[in-house]
Amino acid sequence: MTPEELLLAAADDIAVHGHHKGALYAPRDRPRDTARACALGALTRRATHISPSAALSVHRAAIQFLCNQIPDVRDPKDRFATESLDNTYKITAWNDHPQTSKKDVILAMQKAANHDA
Questions:
Q1: pLDDT digits over 16-40, tens only?
Q2: Which long-range contacts (CB under 8 A, 24 or more apart) does 55-62 make?
Q3: How far is 94 from 32, CA to CA, in rounded Å?
Q4: pTM for the complete prediction?
Q5: Which of 9, 35, 33, 31 is nearest to 20 (CA)?
């Protein structure tokens, strides 16, 4: 599986199971394999279908592609947010932003998979 395929699988995951904010998966929603997921949760869940030797590099590349696609909504007053080198924090802040919808997440993943600007 390529990073692009992982992004498309994660977009499909959210389309089918639903979008969640505030945690990787909706607690007590359903079993974890079908619970609503945030952007990172869907990427992580779908990455479990990749061979262990490739999973980390594919997952990291997919995160980078998505990070390149989305706006930075981190609070500039949040020292951790502005100093963090971890792209997962950027994705989490964007996913959990009140104006980010399920449709936004799906479209961003699809655009990232296609390297659309």
A1: 999 999 998 888 767 878 899 999 9
A2: 58/1, 58/2, 58/3, 58/6, 59/3, 59/6, 61/3, 62/3, 62/4, 62/6, 62/7, 62/10, 62/112
A3: 22
A4: 0.88
A5: 35
